[in-house]
Amino acid sequence: MSLKYIDEYRDAGLARQLVKKIQAVSKKKLRLMEVCGTHTMSIFRHGIRSVLPGGITLLSGPGCPVCVTAQKDIDAFVELTKIKDVIVTTFGDLIKVPGSGSSLANEKASGADVRIVYSLFDAVNLARKNKDKEIVFCGVGFETTIPTIAAGILIAAGDKIDNFSVYTSNKLTPPALAALMETPDIEIDGFILPGHVSVITGTNAYRDTFEKYDMPSVITGFEPIDILKAILILIQQNEEGKPALENAYPRAVSDQGNVKAKEIMNRVFEVCDAPWRGLGEIPFSGMKLKKEFQGFDAALKFDVNVPDMPEPKGCACGQILMGLKTPKECALYKKRCTPMNPVGPCMVSTEGSCAAFYRYN
Amino acid sequence: MAEEKILLDHGSGGKVSHSMFAELILPLFENPELSKQDDGAIFDVDKGKLAFSTDSYVVDPIFFPGGNIGDLAVNGTINDVSMCGAVPKFISVGLIIEEGFPVKDLKLILETMAGAAGKAGVKIVTGDTKVVPRGKADKIFINTSGIGVIPKGVDVSGGNAEPGDKIIISGTIADHGITVLSSREGLRFDSDIQSDSAPLNRMVSSITSSGCDIHVLRDPTRGGLGTTLNEIASQSRVGIKIDELSLPVRGAVQGVCELLGFDPLYIANEGKLIAFVPEKDAGKVLEIIRQDEFGKDAVIIGEVTNEDPGKVFLQTAIGGTRIIDMLTGEQLPRIC
Fold this sequence. Notes:
The complex is a heterodimer. Chain A is α/β, with parallel strands linked by helices. Chain A contains 15 helices and 11 strands. Chain A has helices at about 10-25, 35-45, 65-70, 70-80, 105-110, 120-130, 145-160, 175-180, 195-200, 205-215, 225-240, 260-270, 300, 315-320, 355-360; strands spanning about 30-35, 55-60, 85-90, 115, 135-140, 165-170, 190-195, 215-220, 245, 270-275, 280-290. Chain A has a 5-stranded parallel sheet. Chain A has a 4-stranded parallel sheet with strand order 4-3-5-6, with helices on both faces. A two-stranded antiparallel sheet of chain A has the order 10-11. In chain A, strand 1 (about 30-35), helix 2 and strand 2 form a beta-alpha-beta unit. Chain A is globular. In chain B, the strands form 3 sheets. In chain B, strands 8-10-7-11-9-12-13 form a 7-stranded mixed sheet. By secondary structure, chain B is an alpha+beta fold. Chain B is built from 9 helices and 13 strands. In chain B, about 30% of the residues lie in helices and about 25% in strands. Chain B has 2 domains: about 10-150, CATH 3.30.1330.10; about 165-325, PurM-like C-terminal domain (Phosphoribosyl-aminoimidazole Synthetase, Chain A, domain 2, Alpha-Beta Complex). Chain B starts with 14 loop residues before the first helix and ends in a 12-residue tail after the last strand. In chain B, helix 1 (about 15-30) packs parallel to helix 4 (about 105-120). The radius of gyration of chain B is 21 Å and the shape is globular. The interface of A and B includes residues 16, 117 and 360 of A.
């Protein structure tokens, strides 16, 4: 019988056994942060909070790429739509994110050519077919997306497609975790480390941060069994006072990660400092195009100048992403800020913690 | 019809329009009401209550595995009328066609509509055709309206759900939405999933004439099962509890949902109904639905409670609970 990788990791009996075990070992009050937005979604979808002991609090971290994209970058995407003969391409989640004045969805409704693509290669092909247009891709993503952007740029370079460019707003996960640990007042007792990102980075990418801060950390997948197992390990590590970096997702994640993807990523991009919405500038947490690929940099190709605007007043997205506040503690939550009319990015993306809280709580 | 493409003239109301009606439309749909070619259809109705419903169809792509925009438009309105507890009798069809649309595609769509109406035993008795300049509509849009007669003693409404009612779904969820999405440009999946587009009028007649007490009938189309259950919870001011393990979802549909991050609970169906039935009759109604050709996979998925009125809860496979909210925002544009 073949393993379908859905049913097996949602096995009700196995899950209930894990829940029992968690309840048996859990004594201390603990605050555990799931770093990745897909984990946040999965935790809600499977009702995981409702089966955990009262002392365990799950916090949603800065792991939804849309949520951490700087407002200034959103403003730049919006500006790009106003340039003649430019088609702006983006993943669907980004389209409704409000910048300081508008969103891609607003501009689309007003007649701008904004298209949702499911893969960067669709954007490259659009450029191939529309030689009289400039195709710009809004490059928002973590280690999971950056290699595909790099691969697209390599294809465009190889095929000499010169009407294609990317506005890069890439983010790297391990530096963000390190920055989080340096934040005053932070109260985190363990990290549920991302699954997809770790497929690329490998377990080793977290080793420096782990060794510096001795923080219980477990990489895991997205099914309920994966997540419950990670929570159990984090509780055990805390109860026994033995923090460790563990990989509970060995079916997908290795120590080295995806070497080929990293190689492609590093051929096209180099590490740079990057602004995170709500968190500010984090050193070495971004990736910009290397000099030889700067012809594909939309920020250089088009003169997009957007001023630094303050983030919306009262929006607690930044503190929520750091686990300092829960969505319910934000003054705007469910009042001025709803999925129908989002103020902050955490309410827009389906993986945003505010949107997830709104939908499932 | 000699032309290969639809011209603006076909919507002019003049000679070319008339020849399209006479040569293409009338032979396909011929019935006494339509053949009179009056401005509207005139017909006798039984004494009692009528149900009347309308819907517009803008699905993209217009042809998809398991159907096309034509049978979708006919079945959709048949089902809307049926969900009022009515026996659908007459349908109107409004076509809005983009200039240059291939006549052979139009013919295929109309043939499918005639086939769907015939299969369901419903007559298309009046219609209209407009042609808009190229680029002003995308290929073809169809509006259908339908009239049906409610048999004596039948009283179903979204506001009639009562605590203790069992909730039955007539088959697998999310087939239509995922099929249409999978047939879109740039997102082709190699799978055998098909739209579930089907007329449910016979299934409804069997249920309503069974002597069983039926409180609510609804077809969970756009917004999916999750949204429909929320509508009923709020209309009836009751709580609803469903069990994740009982939800019927095809493996391939579940797979596409997992890949693209969709929740099957919010994906459109076009040939499924949910019935709210008092516990005493639930087993019998389930059996009746299962005997219908479109109800073989019917199951009980949950029940109505008097806790948390207006809210829908899902008992997850792992034993947790979560709220099922109404769909917010457009998950899949132009799905029907």
